[in-house]
Design a protein that fits this description.
The chain has 234 residues and is α+β, with helices and mostly antiparallel strands. It has six helices and six strands; from the N terminus they run αααβααβαββββ. The strands form three sheets. Strands 1-2 form a two-stranded parallel sheet. Strands 3-4 form a two-stranded antiparallel ribbon.
Length: 234
């Protein structure tokens, strides 16, 4: 929401995510500038006129006007796959700017188009990072195993050059692994992280990733229609 008919526009924040960018006295500047310079194409546009009832109109205008040039949600990755492409997607689950369930939704839609989970995992893998904010760490979760772009890129190189697909990425709570006090495997979606039952809960070696067939976020029943399909604001 919010919509007059109660239909969902997009996903919300995950529980426990910081509201610092959403609960201030003024809106996030990128949001207002998007309306001024892109949707309305009027630098003097006053966002104060927006009401709950009219918000969906601006949302849908954004989709209809700019999806063709800015959209990155085409689930048909056949050409990429057939050209030998490999892709790793990561998302911090405490991201307060780009909401994580959009990534789950996209991956599910790719599965639907590309022939299922097994076929998708052959060239495309998604790693959700608990406790991480936008593109990295989270000051409210100082012990969260951090997104490390070098490790992700190394995993991608190993996959492309040596055909070793990553099932998990080891993450640490400090960029300097030598002094990190917490490490944890980040499992490929939709696998689930499970504690082995013995050893320190701060050490990655004491966890394993297991197949999770009934992940509540996995499956096409959680898909929101493609942009413009909702019909709001037309």
């Amino acid at each position: 929401g919010p919509t007059k008919n109660g239909k969902q526009l997009w996903f919300g924040l995950e529980p426990g995510t910081s509201l610092a960018f959403l609960d201030g006295a003024s809106p996030f500047s990128i949001s207002t500038q998007w309306l001024q310079y892109w949707v309305e194409q009027d630098p003097s546009f006053d966002w104060h006129i927006i009401r709950e009832a009219t918000f969906p109109n601006y949302f849908t205008q954004s989709e209809l006007k700019f999806h063709d040039v800015l959209g990155t949600d085409n689930p048909d990755l056949g050409a990429f796959r057939d050209n030998g492409g490999k892709m790793i997607l990561y998302h911090g689950l405490a991201d307060f700017l780009i909401f994580p369930r959009g990534s789950y939704n996209y991956y599910n839609r790719v599965e639907d188009v590309m022939g299922g989970l097994k076929q998708t995992l052959a060239f495309y893998r998604f790693f959700p990072y608990p406790g991480n904010g936008h593109c990295g760490g989270n000051p409210t979760q100082p012990n969260a195993p951090l997104i490390n772009s070098n490790d992700l890129f190394s995993a991608l190189v190993n996959w492309v050059e040596n055909d070793v697909a990553p099932d998990s990425i080891i993450a640490y709570n400090n960029a300097n692994k030598a002094i990190a006090t917490v490490s944890r495997p980040i499992c490929k979606y939709p696998d689930k992280l499970v504690y082995k039952g013995t050893g320190s809960a701060n050490e990655a070696a004491n966890f394993t990733c297991v197949e999770q067939k009934n992940d509540p976020l996995h499956g096409s029943e959680h898909v929101i229609p493609d942009p413009g399909a909702r019909g709001e604001g037309r």
